[in-house]
Structure prediction request, 322 residues.
Amino acid sequence: MSILIYAESAEGKFKKTAFELASYAKKVAGETGSTITAVAVNAADASQLGKYGVDKVLNVKNDKLNSFNAKAYADVVKQAAQKEGAKIVLLSSTTDSLYLAPLVAVGLEAGYASNVVSLPESVSPFRVKRNAFSNKAFNVTEINTDVKVLAIAKNSFGLIEASGAATEEEFAPSLNDNDFTIKVESTEKVTGKVTIADAEIVVSGGRGLKGPENWGLIEDLATALGAATACSKPVSDLGWRPHSEHVGQTGKPVASNLYIAVGISGAIQHIAGINSSKVKVVINTDPDAPFFKVADYGVVGDAFEVVPKLTEKIKEFKAQNS
Prediction:
């Protein structure tokens, strides 16, 4: 039996989620006696996956796939799974893979579980633990179909290196015009900054910063921490920050190891979107702000005083330990 993972990459380089999926697959393979195959699209160095337990990489080289296309990519993953006879197909919970996973499940007539947060509780019957109700609860889902598709929640498992090497095989799935009914005219990407999707740490700001001219507080702290910057919905609605930085239930979901909220009161939609983050720190002048109820650590204070001091302390610590 084979386990297939879809190893996401950007500009030829694998994302951290690809290695997390490989680490997860390695553990499941140990329980089920399976081999692990990864399918990658236009990846430059597929051998990297071998460090995390992947046995074989099906590397698709196709210029038509340089831009993400959910329908075409789903067809690639489906055909790879059929070629390998995969009974378990793993995807991450990135924005792209959340589009992909249901399409792959339909194409393979497979049961599908999203937001999976741990290894299977049992393999016969096959049961997995999932986040539910905007990350406020867990449920255990049983999948009875022959093929099973799982979307693993980001940062829920971690990276585990394994000894071994992956063999690479060119894979040319059959794609037709129906796979490309949507045309990508252009793609705009932020360069030189940590993206929210890949960030271990996210520093987010709200209306408590009083205006876009004060956003340097957020950027300075993020730079000191090697973090991505984000914002609440009102901030993006006001035009202080681009909508690409809006996080929350109605924006981008965040599952970082550390989430720092500065001047954000904590509307339920915002909290629901960042609740998967492992450690949440809140800085706010209002001691009754809803965010304090879900925070691991809270600072009641003026962001214009607290954040510069915090940034300076982080810089001093890094200088002493460099």
The helical segments are 16-32, 70-84, 95-108, 216-225, 233-237, 268-274, 303-320. The longest strand covers residues 35-41. Residues 303-320 form the longest helix (18 residues).
